[in-house]
Queue: 2 jobs
Job 1
Amino acid sequence: MINPLFAFLGGVDPWIFACSFVTVVVTVGMGFWSAKTSKTTSDFFVAGRAVSVGWNASAISGEYLSAASFMGVAGMVMSSGYDALWYPVCYACGYLFLLLFIAGPLRRFGAYTIPDFAEGRYDSPVFRKIAVVFVLFIGFFYTMPQMKGAGTTLAYIFPGMPYWGGVVLVGVVITLNVALGGMKGITLVQAFQYWAKMFAISVPVFVLMGVFGFYNGHLGATATATTPAVHVASVERKPLVEKAPADSAWIAPFGPLTTKAAKAAGLSNEQAKPYSLLYTYSLIMALVCGTAGLPHILVRFYTNPNGVAAKRTTMWVMILIGIFYVFPPIFGVLGRNLLPELYAATGAKGTDKIVLELPRMINERYGVWGSIMSGITCAGAFAAFMSTFSGLLVSMTAALAHDVYGRMLRPDARPAERLKAFKVAAVIVGGVAILLGTQVEDLQINFMVGQAFAIAAASYFPLLFMSVWWRNMTTKGAATGMLGGGLAALACTTIINLSDLKKVDLNAFWATHPLIRILCEQPAIWTVPLAIGLMIVVSKLTAAQVPSDIRMKMLVLHAPEQLGLKQEYIQEHAAGTGH
Amino acid sequence: MVHSESFLRLLMRRQLRLSIASAAAFLVALLGMPLLNYFAPTFMATRVGGFTLSWLILGVLFFPFVWIISWIFIQRSIALEDEEVAEVRRGKEQAK
């Protein structure tokens, strides 16, 4: 008689299980191992500052490549086709924007986090408290897709396991790991995880292409509206299921993803196209601007020894993530031809698992090799959601422990109490993230990550961009803009999620108002200008309140670090305020 | 000299010009893609070894393009900072 507790172990592929298990053990093990070497409170917050360019670039990339990059992009390319390619492209390009406008000045200013920057730039502890709220908002929106990735992967490995079971299991393991390991462990672990993810996405892709035909061959098998399919002998194509989008819509721009709202309103192809263009631009704006506002990304610029190293690190990050992003769409393209039955499934069994399941098809021709390849992609998926979830958990926990507890509730807490607060906060944040994660099975991983970017784009991005480049910003202007834009984006994305998860029925309204649906689903195109506009107007109205030492602050932000203005500023500041 | 208004203005203007020039090169390509797709769909659907032109650009070629822009930006930005430091040092020498 099988113990019902282990009933879900039936139908488990031992190879896939073994690969995944090893990844989890190594990740957790590295966390505990480095927990021993990091003892002091400051180690927990920002990894002791000096990390080499290669390590740091790998760590940033490792943290950045989340479940959305590893699983979501492939799933969305499979389900929506061309339009989904904007996601990987803009995930990579967002980094360029960060490099061009924000990374250098923020590093020179030397604040650990965005709330640190908000406080330092405006000498306002109150503003810091407002700013810190968005670490949590954006963070939770970003943890939901990671949890969906976890639930989907575990439901794939253990066919009998419910979706929520995987979410809870993975959530608990990572929460404990963060509570016990802290950030120092995570720098090392993240760097390792980048290479694990790169290996796990690229090797199975090459093997799959070797067995079933190349990327271009599979894409060529899909006819466009104007050109017929180009058949290659090695490329097989299984018949599409009913729910799959038609070839010409899938391969061309302005396909199912961006025309969904207009189609639901009964518009024709031609009528839907302008809506689709608007959707595309809004999506691009959210993703490109949003990268700069992600709470867990900026912290790492401070772990470089100097500004030149920070820039070189960013260059390497662009290369490392750029190479990575070529691969996931290949899974989507091959998946459409080889595993079309996924179109018919929903939730954890739908296209979001294509990266995990597709390599298993190699079993048809080469025995267990398919299982091994599938095990490798599962291991990569684990690395993806575990690393991003840990990074977010650290940022959010630090916000709670460092800001809410350390500054608001108990400013006089002793280091031991602070460390304990960090652990308690990790458990609270982890718990909420798990709870939210269990609710979102029916939303696409990539789509949810896009929402987190949209909120970041409308809140932190305008704050950082304007504070760095416009000296006349006042605290009130900055706060109004950030709250106005950020909360508007938050409200829109929440409404869309509640509607898509069928908690609220708005379908009749959306069908008559496709434009509003698009502006809610992809709000960046109006919320980012709204935030910047509010900042300018309110700052002009409160122009008398521009910080008095603004010139010195701007110098610290922009003058090369070798000039040593930062030290000068700190001394003056200390003398001026009598600390 | 470092604390003067003119130095700050010069500094910010030069940095912003470099950043905006780099951003413009990138935004023209990024924001131009949807327009090309919109107004020249047949051309963008041209087959290039199985890919459509549009897919090849967005799915593959865009990444190296971004690397080139960021490489140029980083080289210029480092050179700009060195120049600024040299200028300040020269200014200090003269003041002595």
Note: Residues 163-212 of chain A form the longest helix (50 residues).
Job 2
Amino acid sequence: MKLPALKTMAKVPDQINRRDFLKSGGAAVTLTLAPGITVMAFGGEASAAANPATRWGLLIDVNKCAKDCDACVTGCSVENGWKMGGNPETDAQWIRKVDLTNKQTGREVSMPMMCQHCEEPPCVDVCPTGASFKRADGIVLVDKHTCIGCRYCMMACPFKARSFIHEDLEDQKSYAPRGKGTVESCTLCVHRVDEGGIPACVEACDATGHGAMMFGDLKDPTSDIAIALASYASVGLRDDLRLNTGVRYSNL
Amino acid sequence: MARTVYQEVTPTPAIWMIAILMGAFVAAAGVSVLYIEHNGHIVTGMNNQIVWGLPHVFAIFLIVAASGALNVASIASVFGKIENKPMARYSGLLSIALLLGGLAVLVLDLGRPDRLIIAMTQYNFKSIFAWNMLLYNGFFVIVGTYIYVQMARGMSEKVIKIVGTAAFVWRLALTTGTGSIFGWLVARSGYDAAIMAPMFIVMSFSFGLAFFILVLGSTFPLTGRFLGDNLIKRLGRLLGVFAAAVLYFTAIRHLSNLYATEHHDFERFILMGDTIFTPLFWIGQVLIGGLIPVAMLLRKAEKTTKMQVMIASILIVIGGFAQLYGIVIGGQAFPLEIFPGYDVTSAFYDGTINSYTPTIYELALGLGGVALAVLVAGVGVVALRILPMTLCDEEIDPTAPDF
């Protein structure tokens, strides 16, 4: 089966040069394991599709996020083919809703949590094989063909954003490959983004009318997200770790 | 000192029985691995909260003990204690066997153990895990060479000392790497401490020597060879110092955490919580694995018996497992502090103490690693001239013991 990432690569070959390609984690895999043969899932091709001039990110307005709404979670689950199967301790959760109560003031808020797509991702640092990697446009992914299932990235992630696939899978989506015994997390709907779309969670949130999630290019000063970030206060989770997360929260 | 005579061990029925028993444990581990791989990790007690479980406790214990088991040889070759020299080959063999057992458990618990070749051929050099792959493989080569130069005829002492020193430095690096697996996890309250690396080194001194004493003390009677009282007492004194050092490092680790307000919740969880980790710490690690054996080993030497040293070694091994269980599982059971200043709830166990109940498959895998180590060491002493014919005090150290 041909992965959608390949199509994307065919569309944008002029956006990358050889150096960028070799710099991508998956490119080394292609050279080492299968020159001329593509066996990648979120590997060299998905990485090569990335444009280093952009950095994709999310801005979540906590005030607009309704406590009883989980449209973003459902949207992601339907889009990417993961679901809660009745084993909450082992089921995958690419995105989840968290409810927070400020210990001092008692203020209650609700918000979605997913991979924060750090600029300095600890999961990428600790991955022994380089299966955890960051694309040039800031999207953090797992190469499903080189993940050995050691779970060190899950130990290292400050946001509990990753899941390990504990059992056999059914009804997978061709554009969101998953595999028993490997680790996975939010891909920022890379298959949509590379086609010019937006992540499913943002689309689902917009459909409810809440408009709590904004997606865009953090590096483009004319983008809505960059303008909003420049105009209003926002925070990244665990900013003390200086990971420069690609997901930011306002009114938290 | 008389010339040491090394001889292969001739298997007796008792040795065959032990070999068959160990083989059964290894086979049980193999079946468990196939079962886990077929069904997925859903059949284990591990989950998305406790991602490393009992197999990792066993694996890390064996890996840590492996580098420590080499101490006896290092003390002979590097620090010139000639009375340790007759045990140096065995020390090297045991360290290789323990590392093999530990790595087998670690590798067979992977989600995709079939992809081990990827871990061996693709390295992310920012990952301490990747460095550890090199350190572990290098350990086999260097310690293997170390055993060889000790056994080769006519090899000069200088060469043995050089290779022995390289092995000693390498094992320090190896345990630094093992400790740093946890020390460099910046986001978790239970880890993220530079003291992890030196603490793991001291733990390896203690656990490795305890394991060495236990194996030495049981192997020699089985093979009909004599083991001197003073030798065991001297090793016991050293073990007492190492066990006390582990207590010291443990105290410093927790005192440092207690000084920083941000770590108070974690310390309360470990030191005075209502989970298994609190009794595991105070009773398992501090009392059984620390204070009691230290008192047994460091009191007046003339009163210490061989049996007491053996019992103290068993206690230190038990305490070592308790300590590693507390570090590996306890560190994950405590929730990640993603939102300081907030109470948090979610469908993904945010803000809750995570629970873990290991299954029989994980236990079988861990015990299989220990059995594999014993089996490899056993095959080694049967096939090679590793064990000296005697380790009686008059043969190896005619001078009065300097306890």
Note: Residues 62 and 102 of chain B are 5 Å apart (CA to CA).
